[in-house]
Amino acid sequence: ARDPGSLARWLCGALVVRGVVAVLALPRSRRELLQLDFLAAALQIPFLSLLDTRGPLPFRAQQSPFHFHMERQSSLDTLVDVLVSVLQANDWQETNLVLCHPWDVSGFLSLWARRSQLFLRTILDLGYLEEPGATSYLQQHGESFRALSSPVLVLGCDLRRARLIFQAAEESGLLPQEFHWMLGSPLSAGELQTEGLPLGLLAYGEVSRPPLELFIQDAVELVSRAIGSAARVRPDLALLQTMVNCNDRRRAGGESSGLFLSRFMANTSFHGRTGTVRVENATLVRSEQQFRVWSLRRDSRGEPTWVTVGTWHHGHLELEEGAWQSQRPRARPSQGPRMKLRVVTLVEHPFVFTREADEDGSCPAGQLCLDPGTNDSAALDALFEELGAENGSVPREYKKCCYGYCIDLLEKLAEDMPFDFQLYIVGDGKYGAWKNGRWTGLVGDLLSGTAHMAVTSFSINSARSKVIDFTSPFFSTSLGILVRTKDTASPIGAFMWPLHWTMWVGIFVALHMTALFLTLYEWKSPYGMTPHGRNRMKIFSYSSALNLCYAILFGRTVSSKTPKCCTGRFLMNLWAIFCLLVLSSYTANLAAVMVGDKTFEELSGIHDPKLHHPSQGFRFGTVWESSAEEYIKKSFPEMHEYMRRYNVPTTPAGVTMLKTEPPKLNAFIMDKSLLDYEVSIDSDCKLLTVGKPFAIEGYGIGLPQNSPLTSNLSEFISRYKSAGFIDLLHDKWYKMVPCGKRVFAVTE
Could you tell me the pTM of the whole model? Predict the structure, then answer.
């Protein structure tokens, strides 16, 4: 093997003297990478190396302006940026650290100290211990687990060692699910496993990494672009090598061609095959990288699965819709002889009604609930503390009496489980949707820890199920369409509606013309009923002809004179046939018009063309941030875009707009269970649901993810269904008003 000086002189003769202006190198180890740094400085031409490395480079950046290193694997800087973004997204200012050393973490920690203000507190350091030694170490330091506080960053540990840590924590009396754990070492999507890992665990890793061939193509393009840019400025320096003697590298005046080209390479960026390629810190070439952040959740079947909760791209963490807020710490229900829970609800008839409390603040029927118009946890704590105090003073306008289907169910659950509860109405009056980077309504209160439970007509859908838990459904329903029958009052001229005015004019013109010709035929005939006829005692005049024609038209038997001549009698029969046809058509049209005047807006269902291609003036809407709006937004985006302007804050508001004169809505889409109730209490019986049901769903009780109450509540709800208690609730709140039967008849 040659010494470094001999190797440099040999390469100088083989490359530089022959006019090579740049070198693309593919080292196989960090040792060879260090050798390339020496050769680049010795030969004074740009070297572009490409190697998978993790940890600090074996040479100092900016030490040699000639050695450019292209990173294919994520650098420590990038990993620190990703982790800091995740911790900041959760508002974690202090994080516990559990260390392993499969790869050198010292550089990582020093870089963290320089780039982040977040505090890391090392609790355990497993060092380089193998599995038996690590297990023994964890058993000896069990007290360290009891000092843990959420969150915990497991840094440098693979999944095998991480399982040992979670197992040791559980053996120390801690439930891993009660903490926020995050794996600090990046994983690939194929390495993600679920066995032995706690729910809520966060992991991250690079995705969509291009193959080596694309990195090589971008490296070549970087050099070619730099040469092209340099040639436009100084072609003599860019294209001709200034070093002609390897033993004498000195050049009289000016910079070398290698340094000249290096300056252009350091300022070159472009969009290549691997994404955006740029040079940082003068010599580090980086391409675009994308990371995914995953969380271990339960799927719809209850099995643990990894769910994407965020994407790190272009230096920023983009959160998946709704999947992130559940990572924040939340208040726990107080334990004791009877649990004390805070329950949030939303007024929706017949599931939840409200009325004013008595003067002394009590509720003879139903449950006392607060309507403070806020979801601030501290404000609610203060209000309920005042409410429980002997001399507490809560503003009277905040006190309401809540009752209804869901309140009866809540009282039954509180009696059987048992638990005590504090009830309040959601501050913004919404079910909950992902808006402006956060969840609103009931979902937001559960995620923030303001409430332990949400009880109302709370639809179970996929978006909400990603961030909160639901019990088994206690009420099954679907979405429906509510319309209003048209007004039945008809004006005095309604009898003329079946025929167009031109038809009416034509009939009466024909009548008078027929009477005229009957008179003329009778008077011209030698057999007619005229003074010139055969001694007739009566005279057939024009008035006689009019009397006859009107009698035939209206089908009335009156005393009239009939023509005696054959022509007149033939014309009279033609007129009679014409009148029969007109009368039959009029009768049929009159029935259709009068029935049509009492009909409703005919819609076959959600796929009706009137909804997908609404005509001018046809208006329909739903409730803001409800499951109905979420379904339409996801399934029919164009329809949702049209109806957004007509959406309303609550179901009663939509019904009111449907019943106004003139109506502000032609159709209202919402949960059919709510629409059925509105139909049943309509005193005018003008409302009805139409079309086929769609989007079958259920109502469940909402709880924070991994709540210990979920399984117990679901079990009790199943018992209530079997025992008939749920049916009793339905009969109590639905079968009580006059228009109820019509709802189901029309829908069927």
Answer: 0.49
